[in-house]
Each structure stands twice: as C-alpha cells, then as structure tokens.
Design brief:
The chain has 178 residues and is α+β, with helices and mostly antiparallel strands. The chain has a single domain, classed as Electron Transport, Fmn-binding Protein, Chain A (Pnp Oxidase, Chain A), CATH 2.30.110.10. It has helices at residues 11-20, 60-68, 82-88, 98-102, 141-147, and strands at residues 2-4, 22-28, 31-37, 40-45, 48-56, 70-75, 106-107, 116-117, 122-133, 164-177.
C-alpha cells in the first residue's frame, strides 16, 4: 500500500538517503533498470519540487531515461537494502536483469511510466524538466583529475572517464510503500 507524502517534509530523509545511496530507475522499450547513485540534490526550482540526479553519459540507465524523460528515485529507510544498492552499483543492466538476479520487486507507478523499487520504500516519481551535460572546462583541475581521469576505458562498469548529465526531475508524486 502506498502512503502519499509531502516531499518538503521528507527533504532531510531524502538527502540522507542520497548520501549513502539510492536507486535511480529508468524504463523504456520494455526494459527496466535501476542503478545506485550517491550524487544528487533535492530542492525547489520554478516553484516546483525538483530532484537532480547526475548520471554518467555511458550508463545504460541514462539511455532509458533519455527515451522517456522520466525516472524514479527509490530511497531506503533503513539498512536492509545494502545488498541491492551494492549490486546495482556494480553491475550493468546491459548485462544482467538486476531485479531478477536479486529478487527485488518493481512497484507500479502512478504518475510516470517508471516503477519504483518496493524494497527501498520512499519513492519519488520524476519527469525531466531540464538537463545539462557537464562541461569539463568549467570544472576545477582537482575535480577533473580526481573524478574524470582520461586514461580509463569508459565502456566498463565503474569507469569514470566520461562526464555526467544533470537531470532535473520535477517530483510529480512522492510516497512511502508500506
């Protein structure tokens, strides 16, 4: 059962989740994939609640999000999802069906086409209202060297050669799965 929440009342809990890891899920062409992120922001822009996620250009989930313009954020409320977060942060959806492999459950969405993950019950359904690719020339040299070394193949999971795209998702629905 889903219990609607006021996203503004849960900002601290959302950010605490991002710091330790949350799942971003995309869906397109009957493919669903969740990936772990720990870079993100929640706030207000254009008078709307917004979740900003940063996804590397070469990630499979990014290709799904690009096709639909939607994503969900699934946030753990305790430590029970550590295995899911670890697995989804180290395997590519190009190679493995993560939900099938781990046995987690996709929850039917209400306002988007993208499901949340039942085992990470605080869910944000988001529709992209803006996106921006990072500009390597606008970064400090320190961050460029630390987070985007150019001597790494960008095709393997865990690579860090390619930059991120910032996706600003309007939070069109927020709930806790009970």
């Amino acid at each position: 059962m889903k219990k609607k929440i006021d996203v503004y009342e849960h900002m601290g809990e959302i950010l605490k989740g991002v710091k330790s890891g949350v799942l971003i899920t995309g869906k397109a062409d009957d493919k669903v994939n969740s990936m772990t992120i720990s870079w993100g922001m929640v706030g207000i822009e254009w008078g709307k609640p917004i979740f900003v996620t940063f996804i590397r250009e070469n990630r499979f989930t990014r290709s799904l999000i690009e096709k639909t313009g939607e994503f969900t954020v699934s946030i753990p409320v305790d430590d029970s999802a550590k295995k899911i977060l670890s697995f989804c942060g180290s395997k590519s959806g190009r190679d493995v069906d993560k939900a099938k492999e781990l046995g987690f459950t996709y929850e039917e969405p209400e306002m988007t086409s993208v499901p949340g993950v039942k085992e990470l019950p605080l869910t944000l359904e988001c529709k992209i209202v803006y996106k921006q690719a990072q500009d390597m020339n606008a970064m400090t040299e320190e961050n460029r060297a630390k987070f985007y070394p150019q001597d790494v193949d960008s095709l393997f999971t865990g690579s860090n050669k390619d930059t991120h795209v910032a996706y600003y998702g309007e939070i069109v629905n927020a709930y806790v799965i009970e």
